[in-house]
Design goal:
six-stranded mixed sheet, RNase_J_CS (chains A, B), globular, 557 residues, 16 helices, Rossmann fold, Ubiquitin-like (UB roll), 3 domains, exonuclease (chains A, B), nuclease (chains A, B), EC 3.1.-.- (chains A, B), homodimer, alpha/beta, Metallo-beta-lactamase, Chain A
């Protein structure tokens, strides 16, 4: 790998995927990291809890890493921090709310105090290594979001963070649209802009639209109101609190992350709720049902989150009564529809009124990400010479590229990258021809990166058809069978159904052992094991069309 | 269980779920079965291939089962037939296309000739046992669909099958709306009507709408066209063929079920395609790209279906070239969005134009099921005294109930049932108070019903954290350890990462064996095993936060 280049841009996570965002701006001997997210594994990654970026490249350059700048407090931007900080200590720069959420994470992992935390805001100007950095504020589904501007000797590099243009934002958290215009006017060498909603035509509606609909639903509701949304959507929470205040309802909180976020956001002043409005969930039943609103987790149908437990009748303090109203102030994320539907089924069985479905149909949710016209607006404001669409799967990056071309970015100056791809700038000439280490690092329990493909492949086989263990003890001196074969199965087939099968496996195993002994092939034992595996496997597949893992164990005594 | 009742209606599959439809109409000593579907397992049912209804009740009453009437040829109505027929032989009644598809299934399972097949049509009148049965034709996303009318002494029972009202159907397959009106006029005791789209307001658009949009896309396409849809949607296939004919394109077929359905439907006259239009996929490259349309499987993003393999570059004969057009004439079924998105990503990477997304946004798909206004139309036509919403998850049944009430059905005459619930009619009085055997029967490989909860629970544990096997051989005479503990793990952790861990497991196991022996607790061995399991489990969880299955094996020699 060459290091002659003065300026390089390297995504380590977040392109060709949704999640685990991590981008590196390398300027001479200074590496600055933007975001450190996690992502959730799909079903094929059995037993994996969370995925974080492979940071080998950062570790190789540990002495040059100047800091981590975090754009906002969502999991796909901060979720990897506790795991990464254990491997590579670096100072963290973030806004007040984002820092609050990061501190919560570090505390949970017993890591508070292991790294320095620097509070910034959209007006801050910092220098990491030799790179001056400034910021601009954006609208998104969590307060205190930043775009990041790197003033490098080669030119200005802009990273948008996550954004939409909400011209009537809740809490007056306006985006710095004039600052963006000025940055663009002064010249942008390269823009990295998020692509989540590049498939959506038009302009994403303002968060205020949801507020109006929530309010109307509150006026119409008769019993208790359960309302669920992403806890981190503080603007949404504020609008729920406002609707509750207007309809003389108290607020109770259900679900760990809801309690957590409301606590942090209230303490830091991002949430405006009189303490007298808050009711402990243990006291909810002391009020009339139409005096209470419960803000709860579980908007994605998670069966163990608060709403999931309430719906299935497994919540210790809360229950749905006939006539209660349940509002999903959310849209099911693709893949979660079936879980949400299960919860809705349960709520209807308990005779609740339920407002559910995609946000576009209920008006109870709007996206926090820029749609096509907003993406074009950002591109137009920044007028970048080079454009790198980030934060999205391939089709989103691809469509974002088409949008960039449509507003005048030169097609040959647009780079759709894979994680690990490097764009090097020499003067204002860009070159993409090298790659650094990259990939998914799996976190399973306390292990970071200790579960790899072999382990996952084994889990896959075990999950589909279980395991059959065959233990044989053999005398050291005479190679005669002392005991066994003992056959034990798990996850394969009912014991009572399998009697005939197991007798046959017993016979086949003995047969293999004899054949091999007849051939005077006393060793290596691996040969015996392989033969047993193959013969038993063939037999079981013919009889059952299943392929359990077959594990022959030969013990010498 | 009492059998005094003259008429009973019993769902054995299809209520509170989508899939495995099976309803029983019992009239005195005559049991008539409607449909015999399968459903696909969700991810939690590890290794299960397909789910069919529990037919214990039918087997108990084998001598009274008069036949199976099949409403149409979709998997959720015919998919269980090969598995059920092995356990319970009964004559099958279905329309020509449906029978063609059933025959294909029976052939595949080597069951052709084991049961009698009777061809009927919407004008047929048959008598099973002592029950006269007539039919009416409906519109749906496969031709030759039936509603079923049971003329029992207690009154008329109507089962709608799957339906929509398509007033401009493709191939002039009109629904018997006048016949439905007449049935309603003559009086319906009970209506069983499908609920799939009870959540959708309005009226489902006509299939012809899709035809017009496909035609327009064909006119605009420049390269080869790949178009994917459910193979069984013969009307859709016909419209694709028509669009190809108008734009001078030949048709090639990719995917087993596409070849299969086109073959059956063409042979039986449901598909009108001149033989000269059909091109073998091996010959596709002999034509100009704009002379070919490939109809392929894979509309739900199945990675191993034709389109999935084409998109990932793994199809033997077909490849996407820049400028080709790929059309999803389909909507992703909830849960399949991510798989479809993967395919779209791959297609964009190959520089295809891709038309994808929900049918409502692309106009390339319409549902085959009745929306709310159509459900109300069916209820209005039939004017039933009793109403049982079927074919849907709870919220759909619940909303269908509300629709029925809105058009005048008496709320107390509406039954939302669980599978196995029985509604008994004595005269025109209905009573729901008993239940028959019911449930999911799992098919795994060749086994029907031999995988149950214990096996699935084991697979779950194995899939999440793998297995750790500890083998110890103990001398029979002195209870001393002869060899071991030998520790073998699969799916738990990398071997090289686990050395320290395994040494500790070794030590803990020896310790447990000694302690127990010190206590003179030589037997039962289960006690030793349990202690090892607990101690090792605790240790591993503390060290790794994982819970592998721990399987101590003590061999006496």
């Amino acid at each position: 790998m060459t290091t002659n280049h003065k300026l390089s841009i390297i995504p380590l996570g977040g392109v060709n995927e949704i999640g685990k965002n991590m981008y590196v701006i390398q300027c001479g001997d200074d590496l600055i990291v933007v975001d450190c997210g996690s992502k959730f594994p799909d079903e094929s990654l059995l037993g994996i809890d969370v995925i974080i970026p492979d940071i080998s490249y950062l570790i190789e350059n540990e002495d040059k890493v100047r800091g981590l700048v975090v754009t906002h407090g969502h999991e796909d931007h901060i979720g990897g921090i506790p795991y990464v900080i254990k491997q590579l200590n670096m100072p963290i720069y973030a806004t007040r709310l984002t820092l609050g959420l990061i501190k919560g994470k570090l505390k949970e992992h017993g890591l508070l105090g292991t790294t320095t935390l620097h509070q910034i805001d959209s007006q801050s100007e910092i220098t990491l290594g030799s790179v001056p950095i400034s910021f601009f504020s954006t609208n998104h589904s969590i307060p205190d979001c930043l775009g990041v501007v790197f003033h490098t000797p080669q030119g200005t590099v802009v990273h948008t963070g996550d954004f939409k243009f909400d011209l009537t934002p809740v809490n007056n958290q306006y985006a710095d649209i004039h600052k963006m215009a000025e940055i663009g006017k002064n010249g942008v060498l390269a823009l990295l802009s998020e692509s989540t909603n590049a498939e959506r035509p038009g302009f994403t509606p303002s968060e205020r639209l949801v507020g109006a609909n929530i309010q109307e639903a509150f006026y119409n509701a008769e019993g208790m109101i359960y309302i669920t949304t992403f806890a981190s959507n503080v603007h949404r929470l504020q609008q729920i609190i406002d609707a509750a205040a207007k309809t003389d309802r108290k607020i109770a909180l259900a679900g760990r992350s809801m309690v957590n976020v409301v606590d942090i956001a209230s303490t830091l002043g991002y949430l405006n709720m009189p303490q007298t409005m808050l009711v402990d969930i243990a006291d909810v039943n002391k009020y009339k049902r139409n005096e209470i609103t419960v803000m709860c987790t579980g908007s994605q149908g998670e069966p163990m989150a608060a709403l999931g437990r309430i719906a299935s009748g497994n919540h210790r303090q809360l229950a749905v009564h006939p006539g209660d109203t349940v509002i999903f102030a959310s849209s099911p994320i693709p893949g979660n529809e079936r879980n949400v539907a299960r919860i809705v089924d349960n709520l209807f069985e308990r005779k609740a009124s339920v407002i559910y479905g995609p946000g576009s149909s209920t008006g109870m949710h709007v996206s926090g990400h820029a749609s096509q016209e907003e993406l074009k607006l950002m591109l137009t404001l920044m007028k970048p010479q080079y454009f790198i669409p980030i934060h999205g799967e391939y089709r989103m990056l691809h469509l974002h590229r088409q949008l960039a071309e449509s507003v005048g970015v030169n097609a040959s100056n647009i780079y759709i990258l894979n994680n690990g791809d490097v764009v090097d700038f020499a003067g204002s000439e860009a070159l993409q021809e090298r790659k650094v280490s990259n990939g998914d690092t799996y976190v399973d329990g306390l292990g970071i990166g200790d579960v790899g493909n072999v382990v996952l492949r084994d889990r896959k086989v075990l999950s589909a058809d279980g395991i059959l263990i065959i233990v044989i003890t053999v005398g050291k001196s005479d190679n005669k069978i002392v005991s066994g074969p003992d056959i034990i199965s798990r996850g394969f087939v009912f014991v009572k159904e399998s009697e005939g099968l197991m007798e046959e496996v017993h016979r086949i195993t003995l047969n293999e052992m004899e054949q091999l002994q007849d051939n005077n092939l006393h060793k290596p034992w691996n040969l015996y094991k392989q033969s047993i595996k193959e013969s038993v496997g063939k037999f079981l597949y013919a009889k059952t069309k299943r392929r359990p893992m077959i594990l022959p164990i030969i013990i010498l005594v």
